[in-house]
């Protein structure tokens, strides 16, 4: 969202710093005289410079206090106004993290949620005089990476860097169609080098999701944040007596190399169609789209995807190398 680049292009494949020299939204705005402030998140992201960083909201660890947000936002805007500068506020909340604020997680299980929603979220834009109030666009698919060039070009008039993996949404925001908005790409690499290395690539259309799990070999067991809560514990318990749930647990923990889901017919993504001959054409089209994107962006996982190589050794062995040194 800050660079308009895939993680393998901006250099931050996990919880690591973006390398020096990679253009980012706050830096470009500050260079043009903007007052920028980041709320709640950003203190450790030293690659991103801010005029001011506002920290310490809430008393729940990952929680937040809405009243404090409002007070600090007013203060930041007033400061920008006093300096005669336009402002950019990056307001980040931590509600998706455990424990969820004002939730009953500690006393009840979460309701079942569809599989695609790990990466599918709504985008809400308010732009008086440009975006028609109440208008809903269910046709064009966009990425959070698109926000960087959108905010630069459409709102500020600042030219976006030439080397981006995405483009501005200004055409869509003005109510006009934009070609090439029938799919989006999503990625996952690792938490830190050598830690939770489960690289994945996916291409999503309105009808299908095609996923490549570079790490899945039938032996490696996935272990991430999604396994830390009450929901997965309940699945493990239920799997002891329910063969169907046991199979689902196996799928979550080990996955398979390739997955294909019809998200309209199977929104929970329970039935992998990758070996179904009736979907051979769809599979071929989506794999070509993924290949083209990986080639275009020089993705290090391309050799693995084409079965000509493996996951980069530096991703897997960095922790061991660090310990040895």
Please explain how this structure is put together.
- The chain is an alpha/beta fold.
- It has a domain at 185-324.
- Helix content is 30%, strand content 10%.
- Strand 5 and strand 6 form a beta hairpin.
- Helix 6 crosses helix 7.
- Mean pLDDT is 86; it is low at 320-325.
Oligomer, anyone?
single chain
Share of β-strand residues: 5-15%
Report Rg: 22 Å
Global geometry:
globular
Tell me the strand order in the biggest sheet: 4-5-6-7
Largest sheet: 4 strands, antiparallel
Number of strands: 7
Instruction: Give the overall average pLDDT.
Output: 86
Separate helix tally? 10
* Helix-strand string: HHEEHEHHEEEHHEHHH
- Summarize the amount of helix as a percent range: 25-40%
Structural class determined from secondary elements: alpha/beta
Q: Termini, distance in Å?
A: 34 Å
- Poorly predicted runs are 320-325
Give a nutshell description of this structure.
The protein is α/β, with parallel strands linked by helices.
Characteristic terms for this protein:
325 residues; alpha/beta; three-stranded parallel sheet; 10 helices; 7 strands; globular; disordered C terminus
List the helices and strands and how they pair.
Layout: H1 7-10, H2 25-31, E1 35-39, E2 52-54, H3 66-82, E3 87-91, H4 147-156, H5 170-173, E4 184-188, E5 200-204, E6 208-213, H6 230-239, H7 243-254, E7 258-262, H8 280-296, H9 302-305, H10 313-324
Helix pairs in contact: 6-7
């Amino acid at each position: 969202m800050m660079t308009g680049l895939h993680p393998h292009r901006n250099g931050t494949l996990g919880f690591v710093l973006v390398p020096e020299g990679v253009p980012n939204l706050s830096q470009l705005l500050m260079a043009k005289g903007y007052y920028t402030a980041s709320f709640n998140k950003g203190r450790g992201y030293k690659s991103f410079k801010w005029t001011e960083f506002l920290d310490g909201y809430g008393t729940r660890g990952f929680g937040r206090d809405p009243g404090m947000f409002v007070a600090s936002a007013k203060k930041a805007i007033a400061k920008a106004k006093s300096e005669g500068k336009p402002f950019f506020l990056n307001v980040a909340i931590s509600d998706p993290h455990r424990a969820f604020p004002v939730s009953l997680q500690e006393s009840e299980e979460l309701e079942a949620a569809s599989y695609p929603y790990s990466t599918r979220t709504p985008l809400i834009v308010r732009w008086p005089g440009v975006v028609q109030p109440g208008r809903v666009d269910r046709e064009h698919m966009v990425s959070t990476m698109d926000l960087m060039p959108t905010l630069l070009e459409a709102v500020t008039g600042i030219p976006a860097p030439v080397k981006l993996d995405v483009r501005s949404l200004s055409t869509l925001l003005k109510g006009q169609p934009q070609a090439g908005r029938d799919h989006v790409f999503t990625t996952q690499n690792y938490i830190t080098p050598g830690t939770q290395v489960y690289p994945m690539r996916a291409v999503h259309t309105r009808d299908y999701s095609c996923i490549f799990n570079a790490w899945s070999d039938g032996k490696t067991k996935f272990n991430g944040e999604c396994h830390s809560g009450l929901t997965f514990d309940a699945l493990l318990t239920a799997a002891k007596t329910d063969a169907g749930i046991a199979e689902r647990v196996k799928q979550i923990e080990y996955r398979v190399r390739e997955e294909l889901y019809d998200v309209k017919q199977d929104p929970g993504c329970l039935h992998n169609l990758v070996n179904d001959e009736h979907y051979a054409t769809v599979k071929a089209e989506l794999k070509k789209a993924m290949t083209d994107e990986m080639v275009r962006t020089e993705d290090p996982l391309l050799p693995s995807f084409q079965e000509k190589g493996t996951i980069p050794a530096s991703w897997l062995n960095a922790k061991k190398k660090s310990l040895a040194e």
